[in-house]
Amino acid sequence: MARLSTSLAILIGVLSSIIYLVDRNLDSFYIFKTDHLHDLAKRGIAAHGNDTRAIVDYITTELHEMYPKHVNMKQEWFFNNHGGAMGSMFIIHASITEYLIIYGSAVGTDGHSGRHTADDYFHILTGEEWAYKAGEYTPEIYPAGSVHHLERGTVKQYKIPEHCFALEYARGWIPPMMFFGFGDSLTSTLDFPTMWTTTAVTAREMVGNLLVGKF
Fold it and tell me: Are 109 and 97 in a shared domain?
């Protein structure tokens, strides 16, 4: 028993050290640039106005040209319930340290942002998002062309008052975020087919990126 405890302590110590070192160097694993994504979103809006489908196609086409090994062009839409909110999404990229999706709702929603292990950048393409931190009396309002940066480890309430679609980019530790993404499916909606689709597509993209050297 003592030997097992010692082995576990050593294993935990080694893993903790590895995670600490990797966490301090996460920037070296990122392939997407936040300023380029914001510029790309604004160019898509300038070119196509309120035509969300055309904006999305504009964005995914350029991203695929730049990162052909890392961008999924299938547009496999599925619902996602999280923190009391509901929207639909498709995955452009998913790896251990980054994800890039199109997310939104055509009818509005609101809920808890989650407290995540990654920075989240919500680039508004059409519509509007509202958010606020506990203790504030007025909302933060994000119209088309703006970006809502939810810093790692922070939390807000957010709302899509009518409709909104966004290019959402997260960088940091992505796998732990999935617990938040699955919470409502396991405890409320019990929509297991959608949960299976989410898991299968995410796993396929993460493994595919690992196989070409993208952590």
Answer: yes
